[in-house]
Amino acid sequence: DYYDNQPCIDLIESKLGVLALLDEECRMPKGSDKSWVDKLYDKCKNWEHFSKPRLSQTAFLVRHFADKVEYECDGFLHKNRDTVMEEQVVILKASKNKLVSNLFISEGPDTLGAPPARGGKLPPSAAGNKKAHKKTVGSQFRDSLNLLMDNLNSTNPHYVRCIKPNDAKEAFFFDNARAVQQLRACGVLETVRISAAGYPSRWTYQDFYVRYRVLCHSKDVKQGDYRKTCENIVARLIPDPDKYQFGKNKLFFRAGQVAFMEKLRSDKLKACGITIQKNVKMWLHRKKYLKIQAATGTIQRWVRGHIARRKVTDIRRNKAAVKMQAMVRGWLQLKKYQKMRKLAIGLQAQIRGWKARREYVEMKRNKAALTIQTRVRGWLQRKRYERSLKMIVMVQSAVRRYLARKELRKLKI
Fold first, then answer.
1. Which of 50-54, 56-60, 156-160 comes out lowest in average pLDDT?
2. CA angle, corner 357, sides to 353 and 361, nearest 5?
3. Which of 24, 33, 268, 316 could disulfide-link to 73, CB 3.0 to 4.6 Å?
4. H helices within 213-256, ranges in order?
5. Could you tell me the pLDDT band of residue 352, with boundaries at 50, 70 and 90?
6. 130 near 107, Cβ under 8 Å?
7. Helices in 160-256 by DSSP H: which ranges?
8. DSSP H or E run through 63
């Protein structure tokens, strides 16, 4: 039970649909938005997806896949009329720039698409039919949409849905409810549900065998019979028979089974790749190891010979250095000894001369001191003698006077 959007498309694109009535109203001399809405109320009232609002006479409702949408008629006719002048379109189509010319190649009538004649005038039929051939925006959109559908039906398209993470355009912020709403409005969830209910994945037997033959065993392969081989592979990989069906020329899988087999295939290829890598790496590393081992032996031999030669050279050099050191040290010690001896002799001579001069000065000083002492002692002795002599004379004088007086007294008596 799935939603069908075809009635809504017919409402918009049919002969008496919204776009057709809009183009017809644009061609009317006195056409207006209100008269167009009235025609919609009259012609489209039987459509299930069309309805009239209760409180408005200038709007209409269209029930799309997501929800009902209310359209206000103001400005529809003005926007639907192509206001670009045909002369401007003709000039752009006749441009020497290929890009500009290709952009306007489908604009206007065919007679207006050719460049003007040498006289610079347009054909009279083209000039008189400009208004008759002029397309509205709605018809251009319908033709462009039909061309797009023809291209889609002739190819195998892959759709990319752009989902806005949030309405505020903020970085690193994801609105889950808004994303689900967009997925539901775009019909992605409905498409997934329809795809999951059927067999969305389809493979031809040869393509399936070429793709997934890495998962089969040798006993599963039937030479020249791709279908039998594919039956053996699928029956062994997917135990539930409801997940696949065998057709006349193709295999049909339910949703998720191809992804499951892709995972098995990638795991198998990964395991095989790891095994190949393991053996190749082992061979490369073994070859590299043997090469390194041989190079190492050569290097060790050369290095050991170099070390031995360097050791012998060092021994000889050390022996020579010891001899040289002994000779140099002996010569240095001899020079030092001679210098020290010369310094010692000089110092001894200086000290001995200084001591002799000091002794000489001391002897000279002692002799002078003895002379001075002799002189002083003689002077002192003479002074003492003179004083003693004087005292003796005085004593003698006193004694003699005493004796003389005594004699005198005796004589007086």
1. 156-160
2. 170
3. 33
4. 226-237
5. very high
6. no
7. 176-186, 188-197, 205-212, 226-237
8. strand 59-63
Confidence band (pLDDT; 50, 70, 90) for 111?
A: very low
Going by the DSSP 8-state scheme, the letter that residue 322 receives in this structure is: H
**In 87-106, which positions are buried (b, 16+ CB within 10 angstroms) versus exposed (e)?**
eebbebbeeeeeeeeeebee
Instruction: Please report the pLDDT score of residue 83 as a whole number.
Output: 67
**Two tokens at 411?**
């004589």
What SS3 state is found at 72?
A: strand
CA distance 223 to 208: 15
- Other C-beta atoms closer than 10 Å to the C-beta of 44 total 21
Q: Which tokens in the block code for residue 307?
A: 């070390």
Question: CA-CA distance, 180 to 384, in Å (whole number)?
Answer: 152
Strands (E), 193-339: 201-204, 244-246, 250-253
Q: How confident is the model at residue 2 (pLDDT cuts 50, 70, 90)?
A: low
How far apart (Å, rounded) are the C-alpha atoms in residues 339 and 232?
113
pTM: 0.46
CB atoms within 10 A of CB 138: 21
Q: Which pLDDT score is estimated for 113?
A: 39
Contact 253, 203 (CB under 8 A): yes
Between CA 37 and CA 43 the distance in angstroms is: 10
DSSP string, 114-173: SPP-TTS---HHHHHTHHHHPPPHHHHHHHHHHHHHHHHHTS---------S-TT--TT-
Q: Which two tokens stand for residue 272?
A: 């095989």
Spatial contact of 138 and 80, defined as CB atoms under 8 Å apart: yes
Q: Is the pLDDT of residue 9 over 70?
A: yes
